Amino acid sequence: MKTLHNIKRALVFSILTLFTVSLVIAQSGKGYDIGDIATDFSLENIDGKMVSLADYEDAKGFIVIFTCNTCPYSVAYEDRIVALDKKYASQGYPVIAIMPNNIEVKPGDSMEAMQKRAKEKGFTFPYLMDKSQEIYPQYGATKTPHVYVLKKGKYGNVVRYIGAIDDNYKDANKSNRKYVEEAVDALLNGEEIKETKTRAIGCTIKV
Question: Based on the domain organization, do 14 and 84 belong to the same domain?
């Protein structure tokens, strides 16, 4: 009986240890990788409405960009983000911009500031606030801007590209590689994406 008790105790300990390790791994995960299914979200847009990926029934996929008002890198890319939406939204790949920063740390990223910036720049896409800061860790975003190209699949939105918009944040005209355009063009043409992951260049997300 004593041996059986010890076995049961050891089994319970093993299960608890496995659960704890799994929980730690889940909490310290690095977000999505290529081929993962991206969980949908419901975030407030600058017009006060809640927006989800599921709202876009006719979309073939999405260009999800974590960006903000206050990062110089994000500001440098604003016109290119607008251009991406104008080029690809009509082809089924709209831009979905998400502001992930803690506004207590960055008051310049408040909803009011987001609304003002979107109007000034003529944003043609949703500009959402990750107010609870729950979405960007799921994706694994660490910078602004940080891009995730998703393709609609049978079981959800599949991550097909992660990283930078292009290889020259200072000047779009001097970029040799337009990573996001290359990725979306490949998807639209039914081709393999040549470079699925690049290093995002930008400011760290403020928590």
Answer: no
**In a shared domain, residues 20 and 53:** no
Greatest Cα pair distance, the chain, in angstroms, is: 77
Residues 69, 152: one domain?
Answer: yes
Q: Which helix (H) or strand (E) holds 136?
A: helix 135-139
101 and 173 within one domain: yes
Q: What is the predicted pLDDT for the residue at 5? A: 45
- Parent domain of 14: 1-30
List the one residue out of 167, 161, 172 whose CA is nearest residue 81: 172
Q: Which residues contact 128 (CB under 8 A, 6 or more apart)?
A: 43, 44, 45, 46, 51, 96, 97, 98, 99
What is the length of the chain?
207
Q: Report pLDDT digits (tens) over 31-75.
A: 999 999 999 999 999 999 999 999 999 999 999 999 999 999 999
Q: What confidence tens digit (pLDDT) does each residue in 112-171 have?
A: 999 999 999 999 999 999 999 999 999 999 999 999 999 999 999 999 999 999 999 888
- Using CA atoms, how far residue 121 sits from 17, 26, 62, 98, in Å, is 52, 38, 21, 16
Structure tokens at 125: 């896409």
Give the whole-angstrom CA distance, residue 8 versus residue 14.
10
